[in-house]
UniProtKB/TrEMBL annotation:
Organism: Rhodonellum psychrophilum GCM71 = DSM 17998
Database matches in InterPro entries: Ala_DH, Ala_DH/PNT_CS2, AlaDH/PNT_CS1, AlaDH/PNT_N, AlaDH/PNT_NAD(H)-bd, NAD(P)-bd_dom_sf
EC category name: oxidoreductase
Protein name: Alanine dehydrogenase
Domain Alanine dehydrogenase/pyridine nucleotide transhydrogenase NAD(H)-binding span(s) in chain numbering: 149-297
Length: 372
C-alpha cells in the first residue's frame, strides 16, 4: 500500500503521525511510505531520519495526498485539506466528528473512508488509540491549571500544593476515566486536595483503592456538582462519550457560584466540551475569562509536548496501521473487530451512530460495507 504522512497544519500542532521507526516497520513489509518535507521536525525527527528508515520525502502536502492510498495523521483535516482528499482514500486519524459539522459534511462529500482513532474499541470497551493522548492530556491539564492559577495569568494566586500552614488548592475532576485518573495522580502528587466525580460506583471503588489519601471520590450529579464548584480552585473536565458530544455538566449560570480567579481546563473540548462556556482555543491564545473564571480550552493539548506525544501515539497506532496496510481497510476490519467502531464515514455514508445522532443525519449500519 502507498501510505502518506502529511505535515500537521493545525495551529501549533507539532506532532507527526508516524515516527521513523514506524515508517521502517511499514517499509520492511513492502509498503511505500511518503512523508511530507519537515513533517517530523516539530517532534525532533528530520527528513534524513525518515530517508534512513526507507521512507520517501515529498515537498508538498498536495503531493502526499495526491499519491497516497492511506493517509495517516494526528489531528482531523482542516479546511485547506478538504479539497485534497480523494474518493476511496483511507484517512486514519483523530476526527471527533460529533463536535464539528463542517468537517463531517466535508468528509461525506469527499467519499473517503474515515477511520477515527478515538472510536477504535477493544472488547472490554477500552479505547486503545485514545488512551495515550488521554494520558498526556490528563497530566497536562494539571500542569496548565496550576500555571493559570498564578495571579499574573488571571488566576486566584494560589499554589496548587500549598505550603506548611497554608491549605492546598481544591481540585475538582469531572470524570474518572483515563484523563481524570491521570489528572488526579498529578494533582495529588503536587499536594492538592482532589475530588473525582463519576457516575460509575464500580469505577469510584477502583479509584478509592488505588489513589492516595488526598484524593476523594463523589457521585456525579447536578446537585453535587453545583455544591462542589463553589469551593473549587481548579476544575478539570474529563468526560467522554465515545464518538458523541460531551454533556454540559457545568452550565453558564453555574459560573457565578465559582470563585473569582478559579480555573477550568476542559479536556473534552474536542468533543464539544463538558463545560458549556468552553470553546476551542489554541496554544497561541489558550485562555479567556467569563464571569471571572479562567477558561483553558486548547483542543490539541498534547501538541505542546510533541516528542512525548508522537512516540506514545505511534506505539498505539502502528499495529493497526500495519493491519490496514497489509490487508486493506475492509479485510482488516473483518478480521479485527476492534477496527469496526473506528469506521465513522464510508463513501459518503455516516456509519457511526453517535455521529449521525449529533446532526440528526441519516445513519447506515457499517455492516453494509463489511459484507462480502
Amino acid at each position: 500500500m502507498i501510505i502518506g504522512v502529511p505535515k500537521e497544519i493545525k495551529n501549533n500542532e507539532n506532532r507527526v503521525a508516524l515516527t521513523p521507526a514506524g515508517a521502517k516497520e511499514l517499509v520492511k513489509r513492502g509498503h511505500t511510505v511518503y512523508v511530507q518535507h519537515n513533517a517530523g521536525e516539530g517532534s525532533g525527527f528530520t527528513d534524513a531520519h525518515y530517508t534512513l528508515a526507507g521512507a520517501l520525502v515529498l515537498a508538498s502536502i498536495e503531493e502526499v495526498y495526491g499519491v497516497a492510498e492511506m493517509i495517516i495523521k494526528v489531528k482531523e483535516p482542516i479546511e485547506p485539506e478538504y479539497k485534497l482528499i480523494k474518493e476511496g482514500q483511507l484517512l486514519f486519524t483523530y476526527f471527533h466528528f460529533a463536535s464539528y459539522e463542517p468537517l463531517t459534511k466535508a468528509m461525506i462529500a469527499s467519499k473517503a473512508v474515515c477511520l477515527a482513532y478515538e472510536t477504535v474499541e477493544k472488547t472490554d470497551r477500552s479505547l486503545p488509540l485514545l488512551v495515550p493522548m488521554s494520558e498526556v492530556a490528563g497530566r497536562m491539564a494539571i500542569q496548565k491549571g496550576a500555571n493559570y492559577l498564578e495571579k499574573p495569568l488571571g488566576g486566584r494566586g494560589i499554589l496548587l500544593g500549598g505550603v506548611p500552614g497554608v491549605l492546598p488548592a481544591k481540585v475538582l475532576i469531572l470524570g474518572g476515566g483515563i484523563v481524570g485518573t491521570q489528572a488526579a495522580w498529578m494533582a495529588a502528587g503536587l499536594g492538592a486536595d482532589v475530588t473525582i466525580m463519576d457516575v460509575s460506583l464500580q469505577r469510584m471503588r477502583y479509584l478509592a483503592d488505588v489513589m492516595p489519601a488526598n484524593v476523594k471520590t463523589m457521585m456525579s450529579n447536578e446537585y453535587n456538582i453545583r455544591e462542589m464548584i463553589k469551593d473549587a480552585d481548579l476544575i478539570v473536565g474529563a468526560v467522554l462519550i465515545p464518538g458523541a458530544k460531551a454533556p454540559h455538566l457545568i452550565t453558564q449560570d453555574m459560573l457565578k457560584d465559582m470563585k473569582q480567579g478559579a480555573v477550568v481546563v476542559d479536556v473534552a473540548v474536542d468533543q464539544g466540551g463538558c463545560i458549556e462556556t468552553c470553546k476551542p482555543t489554541t496554544h497561541e491564545n489558550p485562555t479567556y475569562v467569563i464571569e471571572g473564571v479562567v477558561h483553558y480550552c486548547v483542543a490539541n493539548m498534547p501538541g505542546a509536548v510533541p516528542y512525548t506525544s508522537t512516540l506514545a501515539l505511534t506505539n498505539a497506532t502502528l499495529p493497526y496501521a500495519i493491519q490496514l496496510a497489509d490487508k486493506g481497510w475492509k479485510k482488516a476490519a473483518q478480521e479485527n473487530p476492534e477496527l469496526i467502531p473506528g469506521l465513522n464515514i464510508i463513501n459518503g455514508d455516516i456509519v457511526f451512530e453517535g455521529v449521525a445522532q449529533a446532526f440528526n443525519a441519516p445513519y447506515v449500519p457499517v455492516n453494509k460495507y463489511l459484507e462480502d
